[in-house]
Amino acid sequence: MRLAARDIRKHRGRAALVVLLIGLPLLLISGGGTFAFTKDVNGAEGITRTMGSSQALITSTGDFGGDALTQSVDAGSWGSGFSDPASSLQFPGKPKHPNAHDIQQVTGGSVLPVSKTLHRVRVGDRQVNANFLGIDGRKQAYDGMASLSSGHWPTNAHEVLVSRAGAAHGIPTNGTLTIVYGDGHQTRLTVVGRVETPNAEDLVTLPTSDATNWLLERGDPVRWPEVKHLNRYGLAVASREVIHHPAQAEADPVTDEMNYSPVPPAVWVLLGIGLVIVIALLAGPAFAASGSRHRRALAQLASNGATKRQLRKYVLAQALLLGALAALLSIGLGAVLGAIAAKLYGHWSPTTATPGPVELRWGWGIVVFAVAVVASLIAAFVPAIAASRVNLVAVLRGHVSAAKVRVGWPILGLVIAVAGGAILTATLVSSGINAQDLSPGLMGGTIVGTVALFAGTLMTAPWLLTRLGLIARHLPLPFRVAARDVSRQRGRAVATVGAILATVAALTTLSIAFASSDRASSDAYQPSLPAGEALVTVMQGGTTEATSAAAIVRHAVPDATVVPLRTVRARSNALADAEIIAATPEQLARIFRLDTRDIAVLQSGRALLPAGAPRSITTTIRLVASGRGGATLPAYRSTLKTFESMPTKDGAYRTYRSGVAAAALVSTHTADRLPGGSAVGRLLVRAPDGISASAQQQIDERLTEGSYLYVERGYDSVGAWLYWLIGGVFGLLVLVATLASTALSNAESRADSATLASLGAPASLRRKIAGANAAVVGLFGAVLGLAVGAVAGIAVSNPVSLVTNQNSHHTVTAIPWLQLLVVAIGVPLLAAALAALATRGRVPMTRRVT
């Protein structure tokens, strides 16, 4: 250890390079993890912003009479389909809408209301959506849900506080505000100060009378058995006690039904193993070059009696010290940078929830530190073995020959790689959607397959490099020299190839996994309307509201065609009170793709039924309007099974529905003759060039509350920016590894450069050779990395795509070739250009002293 420490102090540049290679991925992991954990507010960190100083936040999930609930530990998700409906309980008096008094009867203590509503605030000629938080900040129970910055807390229903988020949305921070409600009436509120809202609500007022959330104040905590009891009343309970002490809740089997991870655990295992391999192989070039540069020092140690074991310990001791140093510096610096980034994000993004306190995961830090040290030792293992086999006489004479590739070694590597890929693929494919459950067999197969795939491929690299040297005569001079040098110095080249291989393979695996998940989501997307069309829903369903909405649309999109869709007020019991839509026959034909016979039926005054309508309906349907009598209407069946603006895709998410669907169709003329007539409930909008985002925002800001606009833009992929982010991170690692390897190679090849210079080689040729060296090694490693990553990525795409869309009966594999090729080809070429530019024109000559 003393010799290793002395050597590190003596060769600070090389030590810094090793620290960079080992520490760069750790810096990214530490910084990214700290940012994510700090930005994400978990249940325990969000207690005060959610429930103040009370014991629990209780939420009524709807009108009483539903099934009992099953909820997650922190009530972040709940559902009624997981519980036995017979287990439901009723409040005393059986109220339809439970209020604070009803809640208090089943919980005890004091119950205080919390209202969360969305209304529109008039700002000039616009109407801005604003989230209202209704609390009484004068009471201690609400402490932490909002903090007063200036002014005073509201004392009546006509006073309001504006938050930083509200100001960012353009809401005035003083004077009065006009609130526009869906029924048309308006209210003026007086701004009495500024407030900070951790959950980024725009405005703070007193609670409203129709609150569905309540704070529970009492001395006794709400434990998990009581939470389950209250679930039987249809109440979701976020309990301070349960969040702080979740063991009993997490042990409850019913909570597993509410837990869902979009990433199967097997994928996390694969990524963890890949991380160890990437760190180990990134450090490989530095240790390989270190062993080459210190052959003479090692030979001198051997000549003074050092044993092979001592030589191995000498090299491994350097790896231990450098790995620990790199890990400490990188993890510490990454944590600081991640925390700063999270705080800056909260400052620059006032419309999002405030990040939580700086969260340092010490356990994860220790794990990453251990991974870095172990990876460093792994990286130094092969150079340590080579150091113990140094030929004393040859090294001291300056004659070092490249080791020969053993016969059968590449064949064994190929067998191991194929076996590893088969094991990994079989393990993940056979797991399917059950990859959510990480069994020992699944974990073992993933680990063994991943290690074998990487190790086997790397075993073939020396033989492939010799083949590369043999075909070098077909290359231009700089590449010919570089290829032969790489072939001759295989120890250093294999280490660099391994670093690039691991990085590109990790990039390829992640990219294929994300692309496959994104493609599965795209396949599961059910359009509501034809692409580019829009639908304005008029909640009040009246002529005045519809006319106003149509005028707003035409003002924003002058060339738009607006089709009013009327809803018949009369209903048919045979159609289960489903909606009957009226429009002109031509408009209905375009919306629902009707044929000429269907159009003729509508023009004749009959009702058009889908082929899937109840068989009890033959040639007529009976329609009745409440208090306005009834009428019998002739009916005819279409050949279409259903009337939907967009047909349902196979394998689509079940929650997706067509934007416009009808149980029956009639013409506008026919609807006017029915009892109760009809009312415009929606406007279908079409424009030749579609509806731009700015036009959509303009329409949204002018529609009255309760009316809203939907524009069909197809599936919105979030993958593009993510691919480039991943590509940028791993591309940086490839660039650093290639440049570091080239720098070490140039340092070791000074004698060769001097020889070329003495023979008259110009500086431009030496620069081209340095660039060609980086290009050859980089491209060679990238090609191997693409092959390995493709195998792992295709294997991972199976469980990932099934978990993304459980309705699908097939898996999806998508490969983002553009992003991969940019990194695999573009980054090595960039490294080659940088290496050529960084090569010195003058070669340092050594004066021999006699």
Furnish the topology, listing elements before pairings.
Layout: H1 2-10, H2 12-39, H3 47-51, E1 56-60, E2 70-71, E3 78-79, H4 100-107, E4 110-123, E5 126-134, E6 147-151, E7 159-163, H5 164-168, E8 176-180, E9 186-196, E10 203-205, E11 213-217, H6 224-231, E12 235-239, H7 240-244, H8 247-251, H9 253-256, H10 265-293, H11 295-303, H12 308-348, H13 362-388, H14 392-397, H15 409-431, H16 440-470, H17 477-488, H18 490-524, E13 534-537, H19 543-556, E14 561-568, E15 580-583, H20 585-592, H21 596-603, E16 607-609, E17 620-625, E18 629-637, E19 643-644, E20 661-662, E21 664-667, H22 668-672, E22 678-686, H23 693-700, E23 708-711, H24 719-748, H25 750-758, H26 763-804, H27 817-838
Parallel strand pairs: 5-10, 7-9, 15-21, 16-18
Antiparallel strand pairs: 1-11, 1-12, 2-3, 4-5, 4-8, 4-11, 6-9, 7-10, 8-9, 13-22, 13-23, 14-15, 14-22, 17-18, 19-20
Helix pairs in contact: 1-12, 2-10, 2-12, 2-13, 2-24, 10-13, 10-16, 10-18, 10-24, 12-13, 15-16, 15-26, 16-17, 16-18, 17-26, 18-24, 18-26, 18-27, 19-23, 20-21, 24-26, 24-27, 26-27
Largest sheet: 6 strands, mixed, barrel
Q: What would you call the shape?
A: globular
Low-pLDDT stretches = none
How confident is the prediction overall: mean pLDDT? 81
Helix content: 40-55%
How much of the polypeptide forms β-strand, as a percent range? 5-15%
How many beta strands in the DSSP annotation?
23
Number of DSSP helical runs: 27
Subcellular location: Cell membrane
Family: Belongs to the ABC-4 integral membrane protein family.
Pfam family, one: FtsX
Transmembrane segments: 266-288, 319-342, 362-386, 407-429, 441-465, 493-515, 721-740, 774-797, 817-838
